[in-house]
User: Fold these one by one.
Assistant:
Number 1:
Amino acid sequence: MERIILAATLCVAALLFGCTTAGKEGQTCFQSQNCDPGLHCEICLSAGLRPRCTRTQPISPTSKVKGLPFNRYSWLTTHNAYARIGVKSGTGSIILAPTNQEDSITSQLQQPAINVLQEIKIFLEANPSEIITIILEDHVTSTNGLTKVFDAAGLRKFWFPSSRMPGHGKDWPTVDNMVNKNQRLVVFTSNQTKEASEGIAYQWKYTVENQCKSCYAPPIL
Ligand SMILES: *[C@@H]1O[C@H](CO)[C@@H](O)[C@H](O)[C@H]1NC(C)=O
């Protein structure tokens, strides 16, 4: 019994200690509330298995090296960026899909696509040297359905045409060329037929993907 109380006391002490010392970037934490504002409590494998207060700070690669072909840069991307922790969908219902974003664009799962695309248009207009790439898991089956929604959102003027996308591992135009021509929206679809019918590039004709599934695989017991 005494041992249990002692153990419990130690745990409380550890918790208090954790509460008072955690908070700054890099310090260990139990949950994000233990960290300073703007930080999240997360495990970063390169810093060991204990969760730490972390901050994600994207750096634009073009601010480091200028003038390279588009494909020579590594761009920060998000997957399911709408899936934010703690948000409700545009219709007010709770999002059941897994969440994976704490800081993100304001798009939400059940918003009509046009809302998200209009937000992208506003961003492209406000940031004339930025390029946005969208990779769509495309379930739109209506004739020219995607084209219509991109047009309605006013994004046509930023369209990077698939005819300018090089195949066979060749270099893309430089980012400066894309910016000068205002072709700053790169869109890929998972539906192979749409490159011929709507001019929307088929993802696997131009891109490759690394094997990321292993990141999530549970440890073998
Ligand atoms: C691809 O798009 C076409 C045309 O919109 C549609 O008829 C077809 O069902 C789509 N294929 C898939 C797999 O969604």
Number 2:
Amino acid sequence: MFSTLLAAAILFFTDDLAAAKVVVESDIPCKPFHEIYASGRELCEKMWDGSFVYETNRSRAYTMWFFDKDNPNDEVTRNLGLSPPSVCHLRYLHKDTPGPEPDTFSECHPWKDHSCCTEDTVSSVQKLKESYGPEWHWDRCGPLTPACERFFVQEACFYECEPNAGLFRKYPDSDYNSSDPSHNRWQMSGMPIWSDFCDAWHRACHNDKFCAHDDGNFFSCAAKYQETATTGPTEGLTVGIVFGCLIIVALIGVLGFLVYRERTGQPMFKPLEQQVS
Ligand SMILES: *[C@@H]1O[C@H](CO)[C@@H](O)[C@H](O)[C@H]1NC(C)=O
Ligand SMILES: *[C@@H]1O[C@H](CO)[C@@H](O)[C@H](O)[C@H]1NC(C)=O
């Protein structure tokens, strides 16, 4: 009886762990980009939860990448009647003020002379992808083609390194309330992005797969992933452990009772001959 129950407990444990893994994968619906986003506009605006807006007027639109010696985004800021910031307003891995980086700074090279990121945080594609935790990995629906992944790298560099991005904080200093838990200093809102950049991103990723949850909102996808990765499996695991412990306690109790009966001369299981006689 003991070994049967033990086997049942072990089966319960392994079964539970297997079930937890399935939850994580099936809860993230993956679809090709062209099925999630109808256009470059949808990609830029939906994927980033309103951080960016699609802008066709080049003189009012920022670009997430450039080859010019001087950052063309400074001119865009001036065209919008603002001044390029002298501090890094976004707060994630950012520096306090924009400045030059060493010669080894290459992954996010456009910002080498004047960046809000340090070489250390943007040293490689891998580093950029893993900076925000597993829920923000852009290849959770399978590896992306290099052409598609490049745009995610550019966006990550832009977010970390571009001083002008700090002008579009969701909770700018004027509204920011540090004791309000819904406020933060990392989120962006409504930054106009050059339409051609968004359209090119949409073309490059056409057949790649991405999380389709909530119309391909990367923020909801990350939250969903975290929910299933933390509450899902660990909750299941906790239940499994508690249940397993209960079974073990019950077994010890039964065993103790049998020993007690045996010692007090009233054994539960008498030898066969004795029972018959
Ligand atoms: C584009 O934006 C600039 C700067 O705000 C403005 O002067 C210009 O009229 C706009 N062009 C169009 C076609 O709307
Ligand atoms: C800041 O947030 C806290 C907590 O939500 C709130 O009680 C307080 O009134 C807020 N302060 C301002 C100035 O809005």
Number 3:
Amino acid sequence: MVKLTSYFLISLSASLLAFSGSVEAKADLGACFLKVPKNPLTAHGLASTYILKKGNCDQTIADQQVFVEATVFDLDANTFSVYHPLVINEGTKPAIAPVVPKLPKNFIVGLWFGANSDSVTLTGDITDCVNGLSSTDIFSQVAFCNAHKFFQAVQIAKDAGKVTIPPLGKDPNGNPCPTTRHFGIIDQDQSDNVITTYLQSKSGHFSQATKANRNKLKKFTEISNGSDNALVADFLDPELKCQPFKAPSLMESGVQLGSMALNELHASHQHAPVALIPSNDPMAVSNNKPSLTKLNAYRRGVNQHLASNLNQANPKAYCINFGNVAPGYIQKIAKFIIGGPSPDTGAADNLLTFMGQRYAASWVNLGCDKILKKTSDITVTTDKKGVAIKVHFRQSKPIKK
Ligand SMILES: *[C@@H]1O[C@H](CO)[C@@H](O)[C@H](O)[C@H]1NC(C)=O
């Protein structure tokens, strides 16, 4: 759910900086630098704090927050678990120190990053991390460490029949439950975020979002990302009586957590047409141009089939599927989701109007209107404040030159 306007602003400010001869901004607000601790793929590293550089970003400000999510695969038991490494502001201490996870004897861990800020550049121990094409040509709001190796190890176990990814299950219409690769679910930049949340204390210090920490802090706010992953797992699935793929938390017992990695693994069950990151995804382009290398670097981080050429990630084909699938799908599930809460009450008043305005906005942001020369099939009526309150289907009109 990238804010396209800010994406273009980033590239603009990056080129201005390059012109002035300095790459790292003094105080380019929203362009965050996050220091990865030493040995991030060990139990000790997971429990070490990630430091958000002062001056650029502040973890107490909603649109400057950065989140880290770890998914662990037990290579002997062939099971998964989830851990949330903690991000804190430079020069501060955590409200409550992170729990040191008890990891399996033989394991592989992957780290996924998602930012509410315009971008996140990783610094520190980043040997196993992918931030984009380079540290100056980044994806923007996402990054991964060891993700490719993690998915490779899972694939080997899958091929050997040692691990089964739970089935998708059926929605009340008898259709398979939605995944992050369903054309009815994707937006302008699919697969771009994590589910991690943190607790922010009254004094602006952070801790992991566990039951023990909630009890200890008493007064706190829970900070999060309004991600596509959360949209499926936390909003749509409950209304559609669907079950997201979850695994035990490594921070406390008795709690199951979803994660970006688990969602992408679950999405391997997605029936055709399968939505994979297209070449015009703002996070996969390089200098506003499609880049096969950057696209595949991104796809590898979220376990998607690589494209052998840019045509295989063609925005036109993506738009055709988006237009063919999403409006019909949203209409079919309308009666189940109209009673559901809106993930963003500033954008829409319920889950159906939210899905409607999100589709209409993504149609334009992906350039589908220009590529297919027709307007969005869904339109919304908004109130005085611009909040979507009604959805209209079958609205598509040809765009004449
Ligand atoms: C959530 O994170 C994604 C990328 O990680 C970003 O595009 C989106 O703007 C964030 N959402 C909010 C509500 O900040």
